[in-house]
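Quick sanity check, SnoaL-like domain-containing protein:
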Amino acid sequence: MTQSHEISADDTRLRHLLDRAEISDVQLRYATGTDSRDWELFRSCFTDEVEVDFSDGFGQPVMRLAADDWVRGTAPRMESFKATQHMITNQVVTFDDDDHATCVAYVRAGHHLPNDTGGGEQTVYGYYTNRFERTERGWRIAKLKLTALWMTGNFGIFQTALT
């Protein structure tokens, strides 16, 4: 018989299922916030300080900054596109302990910007390796890492958004 202060194996499995669902929801809020330009929703995905690694494929240095600064920097870049669509799938969550987890998830990020210099589409294919922490507000991304495996389309439209 389980004592009231002990956590049974079933309770642990249930907690992990609930945690996985919440982590998955955060990943989906990240994509939805970006594509809908809902920067409050986007901000709700992060711890107060976040490490961002978009060095692979984009040449940006790894940064550690306030999440509010990350959102303020991301918003105008994404808003410079006519439309974006981020699809996040194949999410695999592993737990380090009760309050820390990693989620590896495929991403296909489409960017649309009609222009006079070439195609108006650019797509990134790759995966996120995001480190999560449990906070008072629930699970949040503490480290965001995008690994770009390949890209198609006019990369120039993405460069325009980064300037």
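Posting the structure with no commentary besides this: The CA atoms of residues 93 and 108 lie 19 Å apart.
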